[in-house]
From TrEMBL:
Domain spans labelled Aldehyde dehydrogenase: 16-473
Lineage: Bacteria, Bacillati, Bacillota, Bacilli, Bacillales
Top-level division of the source organism's lineage: Bacteria
Family per record: Belongs to the aldehyde dehydrogenase family.
Protein name per Swiss-Prot or TrEMBL: Aldehyde dehydrogenase family protein
Keyword annotations from UniProtKB, A to Z: Oxidoreductase
InterPro entries found in the cross-reference section: Aldehyde_DH_dom, ALDH-related_metabolic_enz
Pfam families reported in the protein's UniProt record: Aldedh
Length: 482
């Protein structure tokens, strides 16, 4: 089917801007050109930042009720155009149409949550009289917006992860400049359209499209940007941290998430949850299941069920209503995953399913007995590959889970409450899902990791807290002269 190529405009401080220089966006399924998008320059980004700073400074106080109205109207616009958003996500990215619809639903909830949390940006009274000599002092602290937020977003959730930057920033009263992934900028521009129609004040939102090297670096280093919020890879995150200077930095940098399956687990439930966790969004998911450690007593049974369910997955046209797994974001990424699997097999690993590439498609793959020194056991594969290994006991499973330099989320399947709490205490991660895979999240919960998995926490309320500062107010009460 021939698709009409769209000529897009980027959104800068309330204006839709067209550029002579453009870059191309392709459908990864067939490499078909679907859009031409403005290639912003350093000057474009500087303009967006300066207009954001000007807008923020010009509104002495943006009332909470007005922020809430903008957010609600944006959510309503998304609701009214759900299928348009879903088709955009599926067309420019890797998700099947059903996965894209789920992302739209979550993104709407993220914006709605942001509107709700805007009314709950509260402070606290402070008991100054806890300090001797301060009996005549009384006060409190309150939170205030920090200014211009710079956001850099990835390709794998091209709508909801942008919503997780914009929603809290607006709820907190900040201006925000977004640099979306160059391979999937259309969803971010569509979200800008929702906020434009919602009546966001000019300057409080810009979506600047272009090269990370050209405009991303400008966003990170500009002195007017008071916070950088980044979701992406560890190497890029490290560079950003070095270049940002003295400003707030929040980063979600991925993982290679472990799941532990104990002998007393409900195996069919564990298998189904781990299949979904490993292969949804074709494995391009920061909390996707990558390593599964199964107690020896049930290892063979779990593996057999898992392999059978894996081979039943339907790989194909991502627009098909019955498709389970679509392509990776491009053929280059599929080739990378293919090379990692080949390396694991050369190191002595065993292949039980998949291991096949067709263009940008890589079939759901199950490996066992992959040595710890193999790259796929150490790093985030960001593809549809899962490693399943037997363990003697929970202690071994936890030790192997903690071995890597990641710690975003993990899961454990068990019917023993003591196993659950022991794991909660010992696993070095930001979130533990009990009787669920690592791939579970709601948009209201704190979300983030330890070690190489990032800095700070996202989730609407947590993001609002990081996007505001506390100001302490203290009154010293003086006795009136009679």
């Amino acid at each position: 089917m021939q698709i009409k190529v769209k000529e897009e405009k980027m959104f800068i401080a309330g204006r839709w801007v067209k550029k002579k220089e453009t870059f191309h966006v392709y459908d990864p399924q067939n490499n078909q050109l679907i859009a031409k998008v403005p290639l912003a320059t350093k000057e474009d980004m500087e303009s967006a930042i300066e207009l954001a700073e000007e807008a923020f400074q010009s509104i002495e106080s943006w009332p909470v009720h007005e922020r809430m109205k903008v957010l609600r109207r944006a959510a309503n616009y998304m609701e009214e155009n759900r299928e348009k958003f879903a088709r955009t996500i599926a067309l420019e990215g890797s998700k099947t149409i059903n996965e894209a619809r789920s992302e739209v639903k979550r993104a709407i909830q993220t914006i709605q949550l942001s509107a709700e949390e805007a009314r709950r940006i509260n402070g606290e009274t402070i008991n100054f009289d806890q300090n001797e000599g301060s009996e005549n002092r009384i006060g409190y602290y309150y939170r205030f917006p920090i200014g211009v937020i710079g956001a850099i977003t990835p390709f794998n959730d091209p709508l909801n992860l942008v919503a997780h930057k914009i929603g809290p920033a607006i709820a907190a009263g900040n201006a925000i400049v977004v640099k979306p992934a160059s391979v999937t900028p259309l969803s971010a521009l569509l979200l800008a359209e929702a906020f434009y129609n919602a009546g966001i004040p000019n300057g409080f939102l810009s979506v600047v499209t272009g090269s990370g090297k050209e405009v991303g670096e400008t966003l990170v280093t500009h002195p007017a940007v008071r916070m950088i919020t980044f979701t992406g890879g560890g190497a890029a995150g490290e560079k950003i941290a070095h270049k940002a200077g003295i400003k707030k930095v929040s980063m979600e940098l991925g993982s290679n998430s472990p799941v532990i399956v104990m002998g007393d687990a409900n195996l069919p439930d564990a298998v189904q949850s781990c299949i979904s966790g490993a292969f949804s969004a074709v494995g391009q998911n920061c909390i996707g299941v990558q390593r599964i450690f199964v107690e020896k007593s049930v290892y063979r049974d779990f593996l057999d069920q898992f392999v059978e369910r894996t081979t039943d997955l339907r790989v194909g046209d991502k627009m098909g209503e019955l498709t389970d797994v679509g392509p990776l974001i491009n053929e280059k990424e599929a080739k990378r995953v293919e090379s990692w699997v080949s390396d694991a097999l050369l190191c002595g690993g065993n292949l039980h399913a998949g291991g096949k590439r067709d263009g940008a498609y890589y079939y759901p793959t199950v490996l066992t007995h992959v040595p710890d020194e193999a790259k796929i056991a150490e790093e985030e594969v960001f593809g549809p590959v899962v490693l399943i290994d037997p363990v003697e006991n929970l202690t071994e499973a936890i030790k192997r889970s903690n071995r890597v330099n990641y710690g975003l989320q993990a899961g454990i399947f068990t019917s023993d409450i003591e196993n659950a709490f022991y794991t909660i205490k010992k696993l070095k991660v930001g979130g533990i899902m009990v009787n669920d895979s690592s791939d579970y999240r709601i948009d209201a919960m704190p979300f983030g990791g330890v070690k190489g998995s990032g800095l700070g926490r996202e989730g609407v309320r947590s993001s609002i807290e990081s996007m505001t500062e506390e100001k302490v107010v203290c009154f010293r009460l003086q006795e009136k002269l009679l």
